[in-house]
Design brief:
Blueprint: E1 4-8, H1 14-23, E2 27-31, H2 35-42, H3 53-62, E3 66-69, E4 77-80, H4 95-104, E5 113-116, H5 124-134, E6 145-148, H6 158-164, E7 167-171, H7 174-184, E8 192-196, H8 197-228, H9 232-239, H10 262-269, H11 275-298, E9 304-308, H12 323-333, E10 337-341, H13 357-361, E11 366-369, H14 381-387, E12 392-395, E13 408-410
Parallel strand pairs: 1-2, 1-4, 2-3, 4-5, 5-6, 7-8, 9-10, 9-11, 11-12, 12-13
Antiparallel strand pairs: 6-7
Helix pairs in contact: 1-3, 4-5, 8-10, 8-11, 10-11, 11-12
Length: about 425
Amino acid sequence: MMKKICVVGLGYIGLPTAAMFSKSGYEVVGVDINEKAVNLLNKGEIHIEEVGLEGLVKRVVEEGRLRASSTPQNADVFIIAVPTPNYPDHTANLEYVKTATENILPFLKEGNIVIVESTIPPRTINDFVAPIITREGWKVGEEIYLAHCPERVLPGRILIELVENTRIVGGINELSAIKAAEVYGAFVTGDIIKTSAITAEMSKLMENTYRDVNIALANELAKISDKLGINALEVISLANRHPRVNLHQPGPGVGGHCLAVDPYFIIEKAPDESPLIINARRINNSMPEFVVEHVGKIVDKGAKIAVFGLTYKGNIDDVRESPALDIVTLLQEKGYKLSIYEPHAKQEQVTLPLSTFDEAIDQANLILVLTDHNEFKGLDEVKIYSKMINPIIFDTKNCVKINSESIKYYNFGNLYTMSKKKNALI
C-alpha cells in the first residue's frame, strides 16, 4: 500500500495538495527551493494566503504527517507542482519541470508513480518528461508509472475544490492512468476521469482558453460600447437573460498563472490554427492601456491616484501576471503620483510602497479600483469626501457601491459619459 508522497513545489497548488494528502493519512514531504517556505512549513506556518489552509497545515504538521525539505525524499508517489511561466516570446519555460523531474531521479524505485500537476503544453509528458526518466534506465509505463493530472481549482476555494471537483488523470499509458487515479481516490469525491496524457494536457489548456476568449469578447464589447455611447454592463445583463447566453464581465485585463499564460501553450504548438486564441490574448493584453487612456480623461497628468488592488483577482494575495501591475507601470510613465492600497498582497511581492486606506486617499484626485477585494465593496464615503480632492472613483471591476452623489463614479457601464476632451465631463 502506498504510504508516502513527495510533492515538489510548495506554491499555490503544491502546498494545498500536500496538506490534503496529509489530511487523508499519507506521510507527505513537501520540497521547495524557497528556504522561507520550507522553514515556515516546518513550523506549521504558511507563506501564501488561502482560505482554510493555515489551520490545516498547522494541524497536519503538528500531527507529524507533513514536513518540508529543500531536496526530494524517497516516496511511493512523486507529484510535480512547479511553475511553468512563459519566456518573453510567450513560449513555455519548462526548466522548472525539467529540474524537478531530474531531481527526483535518484529517489525513484520500481513501482513509483510520477504525476505532473503543473500546467504544460500538449505532448510535454510524452516528449519531455518521459524521456528524462527513460534515460535513467526505467521503462516508463511498466516500471515507473507517469501521468498528468492538471489542477482545476479556484483561488479562495482551493481546499474545497481539490476535494469536490472532477479530476482528469492522463496517463502515458492506461496502467499509468489507473495507478495515478488511485492516488487521488484518497480524498477526491468528484469524478476521477482517466484519459491519455496529451488529452489531459489539452483539456486543461482549453478550460482556461475558453475563459480567456470569453473575457476578451466582454472587453471588446466594452471598447465598442465606449465608442458608440452604450452602457456595456447593461448590454451584458440583458443579453444574459437569454437562456443560452452567458457573457463574462469586462475588466482591466487578465492575470494569474493560468488564463494569461495557458493559451500561449496552445499557440506555441499550432500558431496557424489558433487565430481566435491569438486575438483574444491581444484584446485582453490591450486593456491596461485602455484603462490608462480613460484615466487621462478624468484627471491631469501629475494628479495623485489612489490605486486600489494589485492582485489579479479579489481576496487573494497572488500578483502573478496581474494587469494591475502593467497599469501601475503605465501610470508611472505618464507622470501620475501613485499611492497603493492593497490589503492582501505583501510588501515584498511588489516594488511600490503599500499604503493604508487613509494614506492612499489623502489628497488624491482619483481612486482607481483594479481588484475586487471585499474591502473595496463598501468604502467609507465620508472619509473619501473629506480627504480627497473632488473625489472620483474609476471602478474597473464594477464592485464598488457608492451612495453619495458628491462622489463621481465610473465603471465600464458609463465610460462613454467621459468627455473626449481631457478633464472635461459631458
